[in-house]
Amino acid sequence: MNDTDNANVIHLTERQPVVTGPEMLASLVPPPQFDDATFESYRSDDAYPSQAESKALLEKFAGRGAPAKRGGFFSRAKKEPELKPGVYLDGGFGVGKTHLLASIYHAMPARRKYFGSFIEYTALVGALGYRNTVDLLRGADLICIDEFELDDPGDTMVMTRLLGELVTTGTRLAATSNTPPNALGEGRFAAQDFLREIHAMSDSFETIRIDGVDFRQRALDGHAVTLEEVEYAQRIADTAGTASDDLFGDVIRHLAKVHPSRYIRLIDGLDLVGLREVRVLTDQSEALRFVAFVDRVYDAQVPIGATGVSLDQVFAEEMLGGGYRKKYLRAISRLNALTHSAQQSSVA
Questions:
Q1: 115-146, pLDDT tens digit by residue?
Q2: CB contact burial 179-205 (16+ within 10 A = b; e otherwise)
Q3: Residue 85 and residue 107: Cα distance in Å, rounded?
Q4: How far are the Cα atoms of 107, 175, 336 from residue 181, in angstroms, in the given order?
């Protein structure tokens, strides 16, 4: 059912991407969909006042309104209490935390600033070594960390130590992490979890709570779009640019051979990711690698077309009740959006 002779169809499993340390550093910028993110374009929900309040606090953190001169940011409003060097945006899926994080990045008058996911920073340490990473990032005015992960003690310790060294040299920090939507009690403890895990730096962060409903789900029916084989083949054929076409199981096996820091290169130049015969994932390692892959696809805003098991049911039920629950729920939210995106683009 796949058109392998089509020059515009490639196979992810045939790509063997290589990314150097300097390239990884240069790529630490907001994802394409947030290239133009601003505080003005943030769509706050009137039903949740904390969204507008958070935006105002973050504008202050970013130095909005400060004189455009050296030292202007630090010399403003002496009567106001001194701002902490870091802000942590606490909230559920899809309330606009990444948009606000990118708005900070774009608004802050900084000479050197970086924006990346938690996994991108830990991958940088893995590729370059801890000390080389510190040396490269030292002197940065701002570091934004999207989706700070709290489920790997080793990585959390490395990041806490790294950020601690950078803060002492004047670097400002902004971080987010996700909490599951509509999970009674869980969202309220996300900030406490974050501060406990980075205990050595907890005094450096101001926690800002953002309530709301996942905007990605507002226009969705709650399930990922699943295609029949004929529909899938037509979707691949109709893609204006380049589409990938692979068996889901083959992609899962291939991800085990590629470092997560290189997943973004797997989807370079793609206009559609095609996955045939999706099955339920029961192996934790496979599932976590797929989550990391989905994050990169979502960052690049590449639609997904898929057959087989609905992608919102790709993670085994026992996984959703385990320690990586937050990661899996985030991935499901994004998979729903990406499959609907493919559906909408096909009828546009």
A1: 998 888 988 888 788 999 999 999 999 999 99
A2: bbbeeeeebeebbebbbebbeebbebb
A3: 16
A4: 29, 19, 14
